[in-house]
Amino acid sequence: LLALLLEKESQQHADIIQLDFLDSYQNLTIKTVMMMQWLAAHCPNASYAMKVDSDIFVNVFHLVQRLRSSPRAGFITGSLIRDGRPRREPSSKWFLSEALYHEDSFPPYVSGAGYVFSTDLAARISRASRFVRVIPLEDVYVGLCLRVLGVRPAYSLSLPLFRNLFEVRKLEYDRCTFARLIIVNGFKPSELLAVWRDFSTGRADC
């Protein structure tokens, strides 16, 4: 049944890319690298790309506005994490053994919940991945590739409050609060539909 639904979605909207690997949490890094390879091959003339999880609200209006003044090359932004450390407890969802990653801290990286990057980075990250050992934390892995490339992720803050525009916590929906953010985390599909209907028609009132 799922295969039939996917086929119908693909025929109707042409918005599904299917690649040959098991889609699981442990394989998110493989999924991300393959995404970068696909972008580099099929979208060389695009200025930016965005990776978001399926439970994320995206304020495309504010996103486009911010990107108009953003660099067109060597640029990646999201919820920036600068003090990340590997979890060594085997019971943790984010467990990372010393055998896979021996360092005590991670380089700066952006949360995998949602981030935006100039599409030149797709090919560059894809090439860098040949020299970076795969770990199951895809957002950290992108950060490791960025370190190889000498690219530092950028903060995305709103002034004058210095609020992170990529909100990885779940917030109760408020139209005018969401109008000042780029992403908000933690929505069910039905909630996203309801929020978008209200937001897309009423945001101008904020």
From TrEMBL:
A Pfam family it matches: Galactosyl_T
Membrane topology: Single-pass type II membrane protein
Broad EC category: transferase
EC numbers: 2.4.1.-
Pathway terms, separated by semicolons: Protein modification; protein glycosylation
SUPFAM superfamilies attached to this UniProt entry: Nucleotide-diphospho-sugar transferases
Keyword Glycoprotein: yes
Gene Ontology CC: Golgi membrane
InterPro entries: Glyco_trans_31, Nucleotide-diphossugar_trans
One example GO MF annotation: N-acetyl-beta-D-glucosaminide beta-(1,3)-galactosyltransferase activity
Sorted UniProt keywords: Glycoprotein, Glycosyltransferase, Golgi apparatus, Lipid metabolism, Membrane, Signal-anchor, Transferase, Transmembrane, Transmembrane helix
Chief site of localization: Golgi
Entry similarity comment: Belongs to the glycosyltransferase 31 family.
Protein name from the UniProt record: Hexosyltransferase
Taxonomic source organism: Fundulus heteroclitus
Organism taxonomic ancestry: Eukaryota, Metazoa, Chordata, Craniata, Vertebrata
